[in-house]
UniProtKB/TrEMBL annotation:
DNA-binding region: 36-55
SUPFAM superfamilies in alphabetical order: Homeodomain-like
PROSITE patterns: HTH_TETR_1, HTH_TETR_2
UniProt GO MF annotations: DNA binding
Name used for this protein in its record: DNA-binding transcriptional repressor FabR
UniProt keyword Repeat present: no
Keyword line: DNA-binding, Transcription, Transcription regulation
One Pfam family of this chain: TetR_N
Domain of life: Bacteria
Amino acid sequence: MSNIGIRAQQKEKTRRALVDAAFNQLSAEKSFSNLSLREVAREAGIAPTSFYRHFKDMDELGLAMVDESGLLLRQLMRQARKRIENGGSVVAVSTETFFEFITDRPNVFRLLLRESSGTSQAFRTAASREIQHFIAELTDYIMSKDVNSSREIAHIQAEGLMTIVFTAGAYALDMNTQEREKLKKRVIMQLRMLARGAASYTYSHKKDQ
């Protein structure tokens, strides 16, 4: 590998370390706006001045984290689809996969949840964009499974699904294992009720036309 290739690889490795360091410092008590550049750089193992070789400022780092959170969320849905192909309830498998994500990557979800209603316009816009990407993929998936569903109805159902799982995720962050299991069962019931309601609405709407 050439020297240029080695330097590029090292730069990407350090950039990755900065993103991971920032995610690691988030908690129920500490949001992104409370992080300092010096803290993030120290955990990443670099000098604070070296931070600027990778990001213009902390806001640029935060936006990169929001983008990554959205990407991970969409990858999560694709992972759920693969698991569904191996058998099992669409709703149950999807809910289980989402709760595993909350358990394994709580700070990724925490960031997306907080910044969608945070004080920074740039962060709110970025978080909203990622959530809309998630809804769009859900809409496509719903339509692929229900040929009778219109895009409008599928989109509304996807929005409802997102609202339910995001609200549940926010509660789940502060719950113990037993409480999460109870919440998971309620979410599965809510999503099934939503799906049946959407199917019933589609049927009655077509009947009235």
